[in-house]
């Protein structure tokens, strides 16, 4: 029995198709954008989440994510 939601397969396929475009460099999800967040969502029934290491370049105050980074993570998940 396949327990993976169909949307996860579709999202991963879409990202792989987009990566073939010469100008694709999504700040949120592109693994090829070295200055981006390079996030990959985990999609499960009833929830979507990501893991992200907050580096110094992503923080406003040491050890705390800058509000713009936090918003970008939420914006990407909602998309």
Instruction: Indicate the mean pLDDT.
Output: 80
Strand order of the largest sheet: 1-2
Uncertain segments are none
The protein's oligomeric status is single chain
Q: What's the main sheet like?
A: 2 strands, antiparallel
Order of helices and strands: HEEEEH
Helix percent reads 25-40%
Q: How far is the first residue's CA from the last residue's CA?
A: 28 Å
What's the shape?
flat
Proportion of strand residues:
5-15%
Structural class: alpha+beta
Count every helix, treating DSSP H or I runs of 4 or more residues as helices: 2
Tell me how many strands there are: 4
Query: What is the CA-atom radius of gyration, in angstroms?
Result: 14 Å
Secondary structure layout plus pairing:
Blueprint: H1 6-19, E1 42-44, E2 47-49, E3 59-61, E4 64-65, H2 67-78
Antiparallel strand pairs: 1-2, 3-4
Structure notes:
The protein is α+β, with helices and mostly antiparallel strands and 79 residues long. Helix content is 33%, strand content 14%. It has 2 helices and 4 strands. It has helices at 6-19, 67-78, and strands at 42-44, 47-49, 59-61, 64-65. The strands form 2 sheets. It has a two-stranded antiparallel ribbon. The chain has a two-stranded antiparallel sheet with strand order 3-4. The longest helix has 14 residues, at 6-19. The chain starts with 5 loop residues before the first helix and ends with a helix. The mean pLDDT is 80.
């Amino acid at each position: 029995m396949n327990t993976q939601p169909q949307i996860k397969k579709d999202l991963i396929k879409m990202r792989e198709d987009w990566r073939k475009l010469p100008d694709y460099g999504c700040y949120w999800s592109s693994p090829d954008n070295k200055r981006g967040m390079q996030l990959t969502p985990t999609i499960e029934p009833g929830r979507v989440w990501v893991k992200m290491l907050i580096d110094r370049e992503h923080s406003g105050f040491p050890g705390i994510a800058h509000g713009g980074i936090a918003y970008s993570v939420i914006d990407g998940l909602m998309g």
